[in-house]
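Extended Data, panel c. Modelled sequence:
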Amino acid sequence: MAKTDLLGTSLWDAYSNKVTTLMNNPNHQGEITEAEAASHGNKLIVADFGAESCGDAVRLYWEVDPKTDSIINSKFKSFGCGTAIASSDIMTELCIGKTVQEAVKITNIDVEFALRDSPEIPAVPPQKMHCSVMAYDVIKKAASLYLGVDAESFEEEIIVCECARVSLKTLQEVIRLNDLTTIEQITDYTKAGGFCKSCIRPGGHEQREYYLVDILADTRREMDEEKMKAAADAGDSGNFEAMTLVQKIKAIDAVVDENVRQFLIMDGGNMEVIDVKTSDEYIDVYIRYLGACNGCASSATGTLYAIEATLKEQLSKKIRVLPI
C-alpha cells in the first residue's frame, strides 16, 4: 500500500526525507544483551520511557565503557508511530560516542534538527512534534540508572517548552532583555512554541503548568510595574524621559493614583491622561477632567497646580500639565 493511500500527499510532504526513510528502515533498532555488553567488558543500561500525550513508548539500550563512561553502542525499541521510530533512531545515533554526561545534554531540538533535510525546514509537521520529544526523557532515565542518581537531578530548571527544552527562567530573561511583546517574537528568539504548540496556551494536546501567553503577560506586567515604581520612587527624570509614550503615561497614572486621584474622587471628580508630548524644553502632559472636576473653577488653579507639582517632584522638572 502506498503511503498516499493512508495520508494525503500534502501531509507527507511535511515530513523530511530522513524521517520517511527511517520510519521504515531505522539503523539502530534492536536490543543489546547483557552477555553482549559483558563480552566487551562494558555495562548494559536499559531505560524505558512513555509519552502520556500520545501513548508512544521507547526503550533505550546503552553499552557503556565503565572506565571512560563512553557510550560504545546504543539501540532502541519504539512502541509508537513512524515519527517516534525515526526520532528514536536519530536519538540513539546521537548518543553513540558520547560520554553519559555529554549524552544527557542532548535535547529534543537536537533530535529534530538532525532529522531535517535542510536547516531551514522542520523535519515533521507541528502536530507530530510531540511524537519526537521523548529523547531527553529516556536519555535522562538511562543516565540516572548508570550514575545511580535521581533522574530529576538533571533537571535544574522548570521546562516550559518540552520540544525545544526552553526553561521558564530563559523565557523570562529573553522577554526582558529584548523587550519582547508577542508570542511570535518569543518563538523567533527561543524556538519555544514553534513545534507542537501545546505550551503556547491552554487547549493543546496536553495540559501544562506554564503557558507562554501567561509568562509573557506576567513578565510584561512586572516590567511595567518596575519601571513605574522606579520612576515614582526615585524621581529619576532621566529614566522617565527615556521611556516610551505608553510607559510615560503609565508612570504618570501611577503617580496620580498614589498622590492625587483619591482627592479628586472624594470631590466627585476624576481625571485622565490624554497625551504626552516631549520637546527639548518641556514634557507637556495633556489631561481631561472628569465628573465634578470638569468645569470646576479650582481645577484650573489649585488642583492643576497640585497635579503639576506632584509630577514635577516625582518624575521630571520639565513636566507641564495642560487641561483640554
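The two ends are 76 Å apart (CA to CA). This feature is highlighted in the accompanying rendering.
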